[in-house]
Specification:
The complex is a heterodimer of chains A (116) and B (114). Chain A has 116 residues and is mainly β. In chain A, 0% of the residues lie in helices and 53% in strands. Chain A is built from no helices and ten strands. In chain A, strands 1, 3, 4, 8, 9 and 10 form a six-stranded mixed β-sheet that branches. Chain A has a four-stranded antiparallel β-sheet with strand order 2-7-6-5, with no helix packed on it. In chain A, strand 6 and strand 7 form a beta hairpin. With 114 residues, chain B is an all-beta fold. In chain B, 0% of the residues lie in helices and 50% in strands. In chain B, a hairpin with a 3-residue loop joins strand 4 and strand 5. The chains are: A mainly beta (116), B mainly beta (114). Chains A and B meet through strand 3, strand 4 and strand 9 of A and strand 4, strand 5, strand 9 and strand 10 of B.
Chain lengths: 116, 114
Amino acid sequence: GESVGLHLPTLSVQEGDNSIINCAYSNSASDYFIWYKQESGKGPQFIIDIRSNMDKRQGQRVTVLLNKTVKHLSLQIAATQPGDSAVYFCAENIKRWEAAGNKLTFGGGTRVLVKP
Amino acid sequence: EAQVTQNPRYLITVTGKKLTVTCSQNMNHEYMSWYRQDPGLGLRQIYYSMNVEVTDKGDVPEGYKVSRKEKRNFPLILESPSPNQTSLYFCASRRGDQDTGELFFGEGSRLTVL
């Protein structure tokens, strides 16, 4: 696989436990946030998103929490499975001036290792 | 199957030899973008395009060119590659930029410049 995470923070989780991945974002004007999962040798894949007018959103086994007061985003994975081993990125959408459109800025990522 | 296709997936080249990485999407998306991914630096945007014939610089455009002559294609051109352009490149697309929806990524192109 591709070595894209040589310097990434790593979260080791026992299979079956819940995982919590944290992300601090930079811009208080960001209005939309996405979590991506990247498996070795593949491109990032969408997991879940949340708009800034919400503080929680749930998907299948995943929950995203947004705390705008402290500019913090988290991704919770319930009952973590071996297939959840990957690098996880948060991204914030910053609306720029009209002609430039929106800009998605990615965090550095967190590697999740699931132990059997 | 909805997808973003990049070619080549792997390439080793030498300094100064022009190369093009192609990107094609079959989802009729208006918005397309190129990113490079480097250890410790995450994904950084190189160029993006909001529609045909509309392109703009991202955060790290130096040394790259793009074109958007057709909606489905968004090639990345390195006119004179240098070793600092050794990286993993991703093309991505999504529906029109006013929609803040999901970005669909290709599988990546690993480029090594010697």
